[in-house]
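Your task
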Amino acid sequence: MPKLESRSRQRVLILDLVDDAAAIAAYREWHRPGGPPPAVARAIREAGVERLDIYNAGNRLVMLMEVSAAYDADAQAARDSADPDVQAWEARMGAFQRRLPFAPPGVKWVATDHIYSLDEQP
């Protein structure tokens, strides 16, 4: 099956959480409105992320992002690695997250491939 061209402004990423009900509840609590530090939301917006939503089912997370034309994931990663507030948040969340077995080394959130669009169907 041929791979469909990804919609240029949409990103879908996946990640698992530690499979523990209390840990999942705590992770969800950290993501309530006002939970993440303002510096984290600011860094995300400054990177060109226009919309970001995270969905949870069991211990699986799905992140949907819409990004500006200027968004550069590598540049965002470089800025985030130099930001102590973002790094503190990443360390805190890392206690709840479990890297997917097929994720490249050092990658937590794995980008997905867009393989189907109803818009492209007859």
Q: What stands out?
A: The chain has one domain: 10-116.
